[in-house]
Amino acid sequence: MKLNCKQKLLCPNNITRFSIHIDKNIQYPNISYIRSPVFAIILDTIRNSSYYTNDSTSACIHIAPVDTIDRDRRSKNGDYLYFIEQRLKFFPEWSDPNKIHLIFNHYTGTWPSYHRTLDFNLPSHYILASTSLTYSNYNCLSHLTFPLFHSNYSFSSSSSSLPSRSILLSFKGKSYEDVQHHRTFFRHLNNNHDIIIKYTDHTNTSDDKNEYIQLLQQSHFCLVPSGRRLYSYRLLETLQYGCIPVITTNDNELIILPFSEIIDWSKSVIIYSNASLSLLPYYLKMISKTQRNDMQKQCLTIWLEYFSSIQRIVLTALHILNDRFISSFSSLSIQY
Questions:
Q1: What rounded mean pLDDT belongs to the chain?
Q2: How far, in Å, CA of 202 to CA of 210, rounded?
Q3: For strand 70-71 and strand 20-22, is the pairing parallel, antiparallel, or unpaired?
Q4: How far is CA 123 from CA 24, 28, 87, 99, 181, in A?
Q5: Dihedral, CA atoms, 103, 304, 334, 123, nearest 10 degrees?
Q6: Where's the Exostosin GT47 domain (predicted)?
Q7: Closest listed residue to residue 311, CA positions, set 32, 49, 59, 130
Q8: Helix boundaries (H) for 23-131
Q9: What's the pLDDT at 206?
């Protein structure tokens, strides 16, 4: 089901064309505040897009080149940027109450609570492209649903054909037993025949990765539970291999899937309550082969059109924003 946001935003200062500007650090122009490869590619894609303007005064929205992708202080990948408030002050547009700012974020909070609030003050007007949105905290004027993916995620091309699949349902990943995660219940679904559940509570090897991909290719349905946070990398991985995502969720946390502004996910994924996991195999077996094939084809189509590269993901986000603003350039087709 698509999000339906009937409200529209206006570009400030009577700007009639949706455009985006990457702000400049005038005081220290040679210092970079980019930590993650993902954020670097996001900025490069914006800079090379038809929406980019080098003129700050004619921009509809702004983005400060200060890396906000990873706001987990315990992050082990080195992408967490310290003293972010002080660094944002080097960009005058950030404190301008008349500017609208675009902010990208994958991770908020840290162990053990993983709060979903950012650890820095937001500007007066902003649009947050976030991976941790639910229907209870989503605002169509200040939020943009965004996918979660590894910085080393493989965007290699996937076959558009549907291979022969013998496994009804599969899962391979961590159990998170230390936090009594609902993933621990998955073991009760395993029958070592057409339902395969495997836990990897250790450092993943290349053999683990290869087996995981084989399971995606051989399964009709793949479990996509949350990780320690609300979202999971698995959504894009299952789409890539044409395995229908079964997104398990708590009844009180209805997550919003990425780009729900333009994608009707009801035709390609199954949202299933953790409270009824024991009945999941019976539910999946009731889905006809025709419906299953249609859903698998839709998974591949969605992945190819919206998620098959970081550049495609970023341009899709810009296209959604373009339609959100009242301008003479609304509903432009995306150019890749």
A1: 88
A2: 16
A3: unpaired
A4: 17, 21, 14, 9, 35
A5: -10
A6: 38-280
A7: 49
A8: 37-47, 84-88
A9: 73
Q: What is the pLDDT of residues 17-65, one digit of tens each?
A: 899 999 999 899 999 999 999 999 999 999 999 999 999 999 999 999 9
Helices H / strands E in the chain, number of each: 7, 14
Place of tokens 């936090």: 179
Q: How many residues can be counted in the chain?
A: 336
* Best CA proximity match to 217, nearest among 193, 191, 247, 243: 243
> Measured at the alpha carbon of residue 25, what is the angle toward residues 61 and 146, in degrees to the nearest 5?
40
Q: How far is CA 165 from CA 60, 159, 279, 297, in A?
A: 48, 14, 22, 14
- In order of their start, the domains of the chain are 9-153+309-326 (no CATH), 167-307 (3.40.50.2000)
- Residue carrying the six token digits 């590619």: 41
Per-residue tokens: 306:
């919206």
End-to-end CA distance of the chain: 26
